[in-house]
Design brief:
The complex is a heterodimer of chains A (253) and B (484).
Chain A (H helix, E strand, L loop, with lengths): L1 H6 L5 E9 L5 E10 L4 E6 L5 H8 L7 E6 L2 E2 L4 H4 L3 E4 L11 H11 L7 H10 L16 H15 L3 E5 L7 H16 L3 E6 L2 H7 L2 E6 L2 E7 L8 H17 L1
Parallel strand pairs in A: 3-8, 3-9, 6-7, 7-8
Antiparallel strand pairs in A: 1-2, 1-4, 4-5, 9-10
Helix pairs in contact in A: 4-5, 4-6, 5-6, 6-7
Chain B lengths: L1 H13 L2 H45 L8 E4 L19 E4 L11 H4 L1 H6 L4 H17 L4 H5 L2 H5 L6 H33 L6 H31 L3 H30 L5 H34 L4 H52 L3 H13 L4 H28 L6 E5 L3 E5 L22 H6 L2 H23 L5
Antiparallel strand pairs in B: 1-2, 3-4
Helix pairs in contact in B: 1-8, 2-5, 2-8, 5-9, 5-10, 8-9, 9-10, 9-13, 9-16, 10-12, 11-12, 13-16
Classes of the chains: A alpha/beta (253), B mainly alpha (484).
């Protein structure tokens, strides 16, 4: 028994009763507790204002929690933010990057500030090839890039950081189906590299396709959390709507 | 880490299209201003040389110490190439003679009003108006622009201390703008050397200090832009705010300060002073003539009982007395005028102090005051030259009077009437050349580097303080900045 416990992976991303109430009184996150283990892809579903982005912002210490805590690799983010951020990579909804820089120049800058100053141009090319950015775009300025191409650069930056945890905030929003599919395949490969991935999204179909664990959030609360395998035979969209409706009824009652 | 962040900022600026435009405009402006400044300096120097030769020739042609007068001419200074200041507003020369006070006349702007209309573009103008604006335009969205594009979130998802990021931002922006500007500045210096401008060690030291001062002013506007962007969320807001503050600092505060000082310390106009003096003089002369008339009346009544010889003596005594009394009245009027002018000068100085004090709220004004003080083209330039010319006038007048006395020539006209030789008129001149060996020569006012630098210390300090304040404001703003 003792051996079995010691073999269990300790969560890479964890929140414990994490609560955030803004100065204007809005409760953005209400006692959220979750865990994401290495090799697990945890998807948070929910509408606007559900608390998904707030959770990610708390992990990155962009805001301070009102109570509770978030930790990355066991490091409490609001206590040791710089140390905690060494263990996490982040991909945002709308990756703009530096428009006057080429893809390789962007990668070079972010890999250096991510703590990898020993990488070569070949390394950058390899990772750009891996994320599916055409070779002729490697040395082009990002000004003319589509959102899908920029998103590929964003995930390339996250890959280069080689952090054990990855946070993704609505990464597939606005991507065309092909780009969205490619993106999901990339996440799959990262998961196979034992990364702990926490992704917020509106995209129920992608969530069902890729997630290990799916959580539904509403008004700052996690109203459902299930392993994706348990939901394999269910219509997730219907389930999502049911949960939301049920929560609304409870809230109204 | 810091060097990576600095390099990124530097690269970001250099690769931006607005950089190319800025660099081109600054290079053309700086080089053109120095080139035209040098040509103008050469033209004024030639004019000075011709005028000096002419004055010397006029002195040599003079044959009577009593009639001798000259002109003192302001020598152009190479620093006017970089800081024209009031060079073109102040007269180029003054008459030097016993009967007239020193007054500089014929300023370049009065001769060519077209230049007065649009003013000369010099180094200080470029830094004060053009580069300060560019500094603001490059930095107004330094922080909030990155927030809007989501870059702050991406950058700070890494383990980067905010203070380090901000330092890199300021240093990077600074280097990105200073390095390209230094190219036309170095080329300008080369131009000065190639075109043979007579710069001495003091000029070079002053120029180096001027460049340092300009860079400090530029740094202020860079840190101001960063501070504004660190205190606002939207770049549209920071752009508007930066522009308003720039207009206030560069255009409004200097002019408003002068207007406020004018209201607070009213200074009478020269015409008012002249009319007061005229009224006093009229009053004094009226009294003098009334008393004189009375004295003559009394004297003529008494004279009827005296012999002719006694009458002549009494008349002579009366004339001598009247002469001395007339001289006293003249001195009194002169002293009254001096008092009036001194009062005017003091009120003016008070008004200037107040105007400059107010205007120093603006670092742009502080820069202008420091730069012109450094180059010697400041508001004291006129006083400095008039003072040195007045000293020259005293020594010149003393010298000519001494020479006149030695020559036994009173300077008057002697008319002799003789039945044998007829009428003979002599003006004292013997038409032989005068010995001008020891005649005083006008010495241009000189300032050491220490004097020049000392005149800028307050403004230098204020500029440094304002820059430091902006750094602190940037840090406070950014450390509590919401990067989302």
């Amino acid at each position: 028994m003792i051996n079995e416990i010691s073999k269990q992976p300790s969560p890479m991303l964890q929140t414990n009763n994490l609560t955030k109430r803004y100065e204007d009184g809005v409760l953005a996150l209400d006692s959220l507790t979750l865990e994401v283990n290495p090799g697990e892809l945890f998807v948070m579903l929910g509408g606007n204002g559900a608390g998904k982005t707030t959770t990610i912002n708390l992990f990155l210490n962009f805001i301070e929690p009102t109570s509770g805590e978030a930790s990355i690799n066991g490091i409490v983010t609001h206590k040791e933010p710089l140390e905690a951020k060494k263990h996490v990579a982040f991909v945002s909804e709308n990756v703009m990057l530096y428009q006057n820089f080429t893809a390789i120049q962007n990668l070079d800058f972010f890999s250096k500030i991510g703590g990898h100053s020993d990488l070569s141009r070949d390394d950058y090319r390899d990772v750009l090839n891996r994320v599916g950015l055409a070779e002729d775009a490697h040395n082009k300025r990002l000004k003319g890039f589509s959102k899908g191409m920029r998103q590929k650069c964003g995930i390339a930056i996250a890959i280069l950081k080689d952090a054990p945890a990855i946070l993704l905030d609505e990464p597939t929003a606005g991507l065309d189906p092909k780009a969205g599919y490619e993106f999901i395949r990339l996440l799959d490969s990262l998961r196979s590299e034992n990364k702990a991935i926490l992704m917020s999204t509106h995209d129920i179909f992608r969530a069902k396709e890729i997630a290990d664990t799916i959580a539904i959030m509403d008004s700052g609360r996690m109203i459902m959390k299930e392993p994706a395998a348990n939901l394999a035979d269910q219509n997730l969209e219907e389930l999502y709507l049911q949960y939301m409706a049920g929560h609304d009824t409870k809230a109204a009652g | 880490m810091l060097s990576t962040l600095i390099q990124k900022e530097l690269k970001g600026i250099i690769l931006s299209p607005k950089f190319t435009a800025t660099f081109a405009i600054c290079s053309i402006l700086i080089l053109l201003s120095v080139f035209t400044g040098i040509r103008e300096y050469e033209a004024v120097s030639d004019q000075y040389d011709s005028a000096t030769s002419l004055v010397e020739q006029e002195l040599q042609d003079e044959s009577n110490w009593g009639h001798m007068s000259t002109r003192s001419i302001r020598k152009p200074d190479p620093m006017q190439i970089f800081v024209s200041g009031l060079t073109y507003d102040i007269g180029r020369w003054s008459h030097v003679e016993s009967t007239r006070p020193i007054k500089l006349k014929h300023s370049p702007y009065s001769d060519d009003p077209i230049f007065a209309m649009f003013r000369h573009i010099d180094f200080v103008f470029i830094f004060q108006f053009v580069l300060s604006l560019f500094a603001i335009l490059f930095t107004f969205d330094a922080i909030n622009g990155e927030r809007e594009s989501g870059m702050l979130k991406l950058v700070f998802s890494n383990s980067i201390p905010r203070a380090k990021y901000l330092i890199a931002k300021i240093i990077g922006s600074w280097l990105g703008l200073i390095l390209p500007i230094s190219i036309p500045i170095l080329l300008s210096i080369l131009l000065v050397i190639i075109m043979g401008v007579p710069m001495n060690a003091i000029h070079w030291a002053t120029l180096a200090t001027l460049i340092a001062l300009s860079v400090l002013m530029f740094t202020f506007f860079i840190s101001l832009g960063v501070a504004i962007s660190a205190w606002t969320k939207r770049s549209s807001v920071s752009f508007l705010l930066s522009l308003v503050i720039w207009v206030m600092f560069v255009l409004i505060i200097p002019r408003a300060s002068v207007a406020a000082a004018e209201q607070m310390v009213p200074v009478p106009r020269i015409s008012e002073i002249e009319s007061i003096r005229e009224a006093y003089a009229n009053d004094r002369w009226k009294t003098f003539y009334d008393i004189s008339e009375e004295r003559w009346m009394t004297s003529s009544n008494m004279n009827e009982e005296e012999s002719e010889e006694e009458r002549d003596r009494a008349m002579w005594d009366n004339m001598v007395l009247e002469d001395s009394l007339r001289r006293i009245v003249e001195i009194e009027i002169e002293e009254y005028e001096v008092r009036l002018l001194e009062e005017l000068r003091q009120r003016k100085a008070g008004q200037e102090r107040l105007a400059f004090g107010f205007s120093r709220i603006s670092p742009s004004s502080a820069y202008q005051l420091a730069a012109s003080g450094l180059a010697g083209t400041d508001i004291e330039m006129k006083d400095r030259f008039e003072e040195s010319m007045s000293q020259f006038r005293s020594s010149f007048v003393d010298f000519t009077e001494k020479k006149q006395a030695e020559s036994g020539n009173t300077g008057g006209i002697m008319i002799s009437i003789s039945t044998e030789t007829g009428i003979d008129i002599k003006d004292g001149s013997d038409n032989s050349a005068l010995d001008l060996t020891d005649i005083p020569k006008y010495e241009q006012p000189r300032r050491s580097y220490a004097q020049a630098f000392n005149s800028t210390i307050i403004d230098f300090g204020l500029l440094a303080f304002a820059t430091l304040l902006m750094f602190v404001a940037s840090f406070i703003g950014f450390l509590r900045y919401d990067v989302r």
